[in-house]
Amino acid sequence: MKPTLFVLAAGMGSRYGGLKQLDPLGPNGETIMDYSIYDALQAGFGKVVFVIRKDFEQDFREKILSKYEGHVPVEVVFQSTDKLPEGYTCPEDRTKPWGTNHAVLMGKDAIKEPFAVINADDFYGRNAFEVIAKELSRERNHKGDYCMVGFRVGNTMTENGSVARGVCSTTDGKLTSVVERTAISYDKDGRIVFTDENGVEQTLAPNTPVSMNLWGFTPDYFEYSEREFRKFLDRDLNTPKAEFFIPLCIDALINSGEATVKVLDTDSKWFGVTYAADRPGVVAKFAELHENGTYPAKLF
Fold first, then answer.
1. Ordered structural domains, the chain, with CATH
2. Are the C-beta atoms of 179 and 166 separated by less than 8 Å?
3. Averaged pLDDT, groups of 10, the chain, 300 residues long
4. What is the rounded end-to-end Cα distance, in angstroms, of the chain?
5. Which helix (H) or strand (E) holds 280?
6. What is the DSSP string of 54-65?
7. Do the beta carbons of residue 256 and residue 2 sit within 8 Å?
8. How many CB atoms lie within 10 A of CB 215?
9. DSSP string covering 138-183, please?
10. 4-8 vs 47-52, strand pairing mode
11. What is the rounded average pLDDT for all residues in the chain?
């Protein structure tokens, strides 16, 4: 059974200032998603499911989905603040989405096979899809047998400001924790640094694994997610900016012993448009990748 690619495309890019998911960055108007989907198909994925907001469905279908017809089966599911488990009602003043793991939950009825989760606006590189496709294609004999691609932090930086990354700790190749660091940057000496919760500057080795939200799950993850989401809502239903992130759910499952997450290494170099100033460099990189034959003149 081929794995499914689940693309999180419901968010707006506040720092970038626009709808990054639909931004044409390739030489023929390709979006970052187009490259991810092309790479995923080359790696052996068999279906794509998108989670989007209902209010840009028409644009999305016209500009994005139409190009995949005849290449890969696609489905669309929708994330909205009022999609909550039975017994919970969204506060009237809630405007912020419920987070990435709530977005994942939207795929429960559409996905029945192992699946990888990606952000729509991140370029992951073909090797990242190859390593996770291989891992998702192996036989499993118990629930909670998951994986993630651990990018080397040195391959995920931008010269145009700081980045947020989930810094991973591992034991015997398995994830033990993901700590979100919100302001990782280069210092004047070219070292990768961040300031910890005690105000102390810390240095990260370039090969430190970080999460770029490329996770591998089996469908049992939806059951765990719904249970943990209920716990989250019991705590934070009325907290306007609280979000149910994937690492929050994963951390709970690791701590309970219900799941293990294998951290997969990749030599892929991430890039994306975190800031508007990143855009020209990304456009140039895509042009180069077409020119050197990594990608054909037309993806789809």
1. 4-291 (3.90.550.10)
2. yes
3. 94 51 87 95 97 87 88 95 96 93 97 96 95 96 96 92 92 94 92 93 96 96 98 96 94 97 96 86 95 95
4. 23
5. helix 279-291
6. GGGHHHHHHHTG
7. no
8. 24
9. S---SS-EEEEEEEEGGGS--TTS-EEEEEEEEETTEEEEEEEEEE
10. parallel
11. 93
Query: Torsion over CA of 79, 109, 120 and 232, rounded to 10 degrees?
Result: 50
β pairing state of 74-78 and 209-217: unpaired
Nearest to 3 by CA among 141, 121, 123, 146: 146
Nearest to 11 by CA among 222, 243, 233: 243
Which helix (H) or strand (E) is 118 found in, with range?
A: strand 115-119
pLDDT in tens, 283-300: 999 999 999 999 999 999
Find where tokens 């855009």 sit.
Answer: 279
Our CA dihedral for 139, 47, 299, 62, rounded to 10 degrees, sits at -160
List the one residue out of 248, 226, 219 whose CA is nearest residue 88: 226
Beta carbons of 115 and 217 less than 8 angstroms apart: yes
- DSSP code string of 190-207: S-EEEE-TTS-EEEE-TT
Dig out the tokens for 43 from the structure: 């790696």
Coil, strand, or helix at residue 43?
helix
Length of the chain: 300
Provide the 8-state DSSP code for 294.
Answer: S
Calculate ∠ Cα 3-78-242, nearest 5°: 100
Q: Can you read off the two tokens belonging to residue 270?
A: 């991430």
Torsion of CA 111, 18, 56, 244, to 10 degrees: 40
DSSP track, 66-88: GGGTTTS-EEEEE--TT---TT-
| pLDDT tens readout for residues 215-261 | 999 999 999 999 999 999 999 999 999 999 999 999 999 999 999 99
